[in-house]
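Work Package 3 (structural annotation) set out to generate three-dimensional models for the target panel prioritized at the project kickoff. During this period the team completed the workflow that converts sequence records into discrete structure tokens, so that structures can be stored uniformly alongside our sequence database. As a representative example, we reproduce one entry of 203 residues exactly as it appears in the project archive.
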Amino acid sequence: MNLSSSDSDIEKKSPMALVGGFFWELVKISLLATAIIVPVRYFLLQPFFVRGASMEPNFQNGEYLVVDELSYFMREPRRGEVIVFRYPNNPSQFFIKRIVGLPGETVRVEEGRVIVQSDIYGQGAVLDESQYLPERLRTGGRLSMTLGEDEYFVLGDNRAASSDSRSWGLLAEDAIVGRAWIRAFPFDRIDILPSVKPGFIGI
């Protein structure tokens, strides 16, 4: 039985129409991918390279990190988290440090120790950073800073080679980009970065 053009659902297209259809599908896929990737890239996750030695031994120069920008829209930054932020003295630069002091606290650095004074620790307590710092590491400097309601005290893990709150002051919350979430490179160090919650030792 032969089918006429009127009772067939097969439409014969010219080569130009086929090529045009292919490119139109390609454009639609590209637009869809852009609509998904751009918001994720600029509002949820962002890649950063570690530069310098200020966070050694936990983060090495040249490592590629994925930064979670979403969490801090839902909660406040926590002590012990490693964050990426805009350097207060030059917002075009990005720094990576660890949160040590929270809003409303007084942070003291003395005799190689970090001491936190707050409503809970009225007389002050020594921050126990043994989860992420080498044993016997000492924090240089001598200072006392009281944080405002939207300020954080941050330090590099490599305390002897870090430009941090000891030298340029407190970090405003609105300068924080997000928390370091995934180490994506080098491949032998790929990891979802562990959550840490440093404790305290009574003075």
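The radius of gyration is 26 Å.
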